[in-house]
Amino acid sequence: MLNILPAPLELNLFGGESPVTNAILMKLADGLQPWAPRAARAAAALTGDDAERKALVTVELDQDLPPEGYVLRIEQDQWQLRAADEAGAYWAVQVLSQACSDGHIPHFECTDSPVFPFRGVMLDIARHFYGVEEIERVIDIASGYRFNQLHLHLSDDQGWRLEIPERPLLTEHASSWDVSGGSGGFLTTADYAHLQDYALARHLTIVPEVGFPGHTHAALIAYPEISPDDEVREPYLGDDVGFSAVDLRSDASWEFIDDVVGSVARSTIGPRIHLGGDEALTLQRDEYLVFVERLGKLVASHGKELIMWQEAAGADLPPGSLIQYWDPKQNPAHLADAAQDPTVRFIASPGDRTYLDHLHAAGDPYGQTWAGALDVRKAYEWQPADELPSVPASSIIGVEACLWTEYVTTFDRLTAQLLPRLPAIAEVAWGSPRDWDRFGAAIVAHSRTWESQGLAFHRSTEIDW
């Protein structure tokens, strides 16, 4: 049995296995280097046996395959890798890494490509701050399960976590605490550039989120002139939502927003930035929509595509915008209206399926409860199109798992909230054939790797450990 997560679309086992040698891995890396250098580095980094073994290794760029697709065929005397593009080659090497066990690899063939082009993991570093090394480890985990987007939630009522050179008071006055009363922190522009390079080397694109018009209490501390009342504010250490908003019409607010959006756009390699838009509960719907439409034009003027949470559906958004569905308790009618525009597409992040800040099971000591407990099987057994019945399936381009951190106070707690539910959502995002027994057995095998890497994880009672 091959314990590959997410499972390939087609997999055939031939029987037998062969040793994995450095000679074979270097042949593979050499073949990839001209057109897939990141995959080549990943192949060279795999540990093989030093013994020499002759095997024919063929590597081919095959643009007839679907985007990010690949074909792997491993036999006694021949290894073959074909890929549609560099990403496909990189994912193929990730599959090889998972397939190798104790220096050997089974003989198999798989043909694979993702169903969804956008496969994301969201990490909230605003409520509790996580720094460069911890984010790097999250990137490693996400890339290993073939996610290709890391959404960093960088600002909220409880703190501002990204340096904005044009607005230095944000990090001077709004970053030095967290929701637990800790010391907080922020990413410098150099940190942010490094993390983007680190992610791109693993075929992930970082999507930054700085939210407007709500979830802005920390920003109002630094710049009270953008608030509706100009009042001085104190740090907020609670977990309530919906009470803060910038002044929607003032010139000071829009100068601030332009500075922030412009700075984030210039420093972001990827094509998209996320501007929040959720839970602006102090605002009337009509004034909110006017604000969001102006915000969309501003993002377009800075050369980026816009992502916003589902509340923004119904606004006249720029072509290419993405709406992120998160709250299954909200009436989805406005999503159907937004879906009438074929240029607006959707990311599925239903809270009761993908919000990894939630309890694993009733009675757990940690986690949110508003969408109910989220056990690993519930994170595994769903289809995005079923969650968005008012939206054409063709308009759903992605799935994202979200980890908010109001109650995630340590890195061990963070990985225990991710694992094993993140690999479950990876199978949904990739479009793997669903098989609970196969998945459970693979999770047990992967848990041994997590243990060897020092990663805390949740031992769900649904898995036969």
Strand line-up of the largest beta sheet: 10-7-6-15-14-13-12-11
Poorly predicted tracts of residues:
none
Radius of gyration: 23 Å
Major β-sheet annotation? 8 strands, parallel
| Helix count from the secondary structure assignment | 16
Instruction: Determine and state the CATH class of the largest domain.
Output: Alpha Beta
Class from helix and strand fractions = alpha/beta
Overall residue-averaged pLDDT value:
96
Estimate the global geometry from the Cα principal axes.
globular
Instruction: Report the count of strand segments.
Output: 15
Strand content: 15-25%
What does this structure look like?
It is a single chain. This protein has 16 helices and 15 strands. Helix 1 runs antiparallel to helix 2, helix 2 (37-45) packs parallel to helix 3 (86-99) and helix 4 (132-144) packs parallel to helix 6 (189-200). It is an alpha/beta fold and 465 residues long. An 8-stranded parallel sheet has the order 10-7-6-15-14-13-12-11. A 5-stranded mixed sheet has the order 1-5-3-4-2, with helices on one face. Strands 8-9 form a two-stranded antiparallel sheet. It folds into 2 domains: 10-112, 2-Layer Sandwich (Chitobiase, domain 2); 118-452, Glycosidases (TIM Barrel), CATH 3.20.20. It has helices at residues 22-32, 37-45, 86-99, 132-144, 169-173, 189-200, 217-222, 251-267, 285-301, 333-338, 351-354, 376-380, 384-387, 411-418, 421-430, 436-452; strands at 10-19, 56-61, 70-74, 78-83, 104-112, 118-124, 149-153, 155-156, 159-160, 205-209, 272-274, 305-309, 322-325, 345-348, 396-403. It is globular. It starts with 9 loop residues before the first strand and ends in a 13-residue tail after the last helix. The longest helix has 17 residues, at 251-267.
